[in-house]
Amino acid sequence: MAEEIVNRIANSKLITFNLEDYYPEGERVVFDVKDWLLEGFVLREGEFREHAKNHDWSQYQGKFIALTCSSDAIIPAWAFMLLATYLQPYAKKVITGNLETLETVLYTEAINKMDVSDLTDKPVIIKGCSHKPVPKNAYLLLIEKLQPVVKSLMYGEACSSVPLYKKPKN
After folding, report:
1. What is the DSSP string of 15-60?
2. Do the domain assignments include residue 10?
3. Kind of pairing, strands 123-127 and 93-96?
4. Is 65 inside any structural domain?
5. Is residue 169 part of a domain?
6. Sorted alphabetically, which InterPro entries does this protein's record hold (predicted)?
7. What percent of the chain clears pLDDT 70, i.e. is strictly above it?
């Protein structure tokens, strides 16, 4: 007599949390100021302002922008601030840094807005594999958000998870 196969994972109270679900949709663009510098290293204020004034900023409509300089030039803070004033009417978000920094900032904002009250005293598994760029810092920020609320935290897949945290019994 064959026994019925029971899917214990499907019947468990385990909640899978996928950071990919919070991925802010939109194109990411790295804006490198190196080409606006004399020989790629010297920022001349007048020329820099002229480039900024004549640039077509509308091409960044609805995009996430990471302002950077790929050369070893020292860029004063006001230069990135000036570019941000031009980008502000068009871009969804402007940061100084690389794409990973941009993703971290976007995920920080998304995690800060999360309401996790429905996860109170529940076992949660944070899904590990992703098809979208989820920065490592996003996982740490998520732990910070979830740990005070949940019963337990695991990482990976339900069939092969790594335990991270279990709420102490009082």
Report:
1. EEE-GGGGPPPS-EEEEEGGGGSBTTTB--HHHHHHHHHHS-GGGG
2. no
3. unpaired
4. yes
5. no
6. DUF2480
7. 94
CB 95 within 8 A of CB 66: yes
- Do 33 and 85 belong together in one domain? yes
Distance separating alpha carbons of residues 116 and 89, to the nearest angstrom: 32
Range list of β-strands (E), 57-143: 64-68, 93-96, 123-127
Q: Cβ(152)–Cβ(123) under 8 Å?
A: yes
> The tokens 């590990």 sit on which residue?
128
Query: pLDDT tens digits for 83-134?
Result: 999 999 999 999 999 999 999 999 999 999 999 999 999 999 999 877 888 9
Contact indicator for 106, 63 with CB cutoff of 8 Å: no
Q: Same domain for 132 and 114?
A: yes
Beta strands 28-32 and 15-17, pairing class: unpaired
68 lies in the same domain as 120:
no
Range of the domain at 32: 28-91
CB-based contact 101:67 (threshold 8 Å): no
Asked if residue 63 lies in contact with residue 31, where contact means CB atoms within 8 angstroms, the answer is no
Please tell me whether residues 111 and 87 are part of one structural domain.
Answer: no
- Global pTM reads 0.85
